[in-house]
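@channel sequence for tomorrow's demo:
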Amino acid sequence: KPIEPAAMMRCIGELQGSHDPDTPSLDTETLKATVRERLRLLEAIAVALFHEAAAHVADSPIDGDVKVNPYVVSLRPEEWEADGLFEGEGITVAEAIAQTEGMQARLDELRSAGTVVA
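structure tokens (generated this afternoon):
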């Protein structure tokens, strides 16, 4: 079963509804605000999943208080510094989990079932 916490499903829900002829279209400002919110949510999901997967490839655990740039995540530890993964803007794992309703519970569930998450 794929990882589909409530937060991830919310990412596309309202935007998909805008294509339904029975659902009123979003005005421009509401659409922009919704897209910005969804982008922040997707960034948080990327960081949360990266942190989980990186635990399997990194030589040492990644500090959960370090800001991660969601646009350069990879599973190539040898490239993280050159890519600027931990430099500049980003979000911490704690911030990512706080923004992604259900993500931590789903990851915990998969770990306890012995399912490989990464």
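heads up for whoever presents: Residues 28-54 form the longest helix (27 residues).
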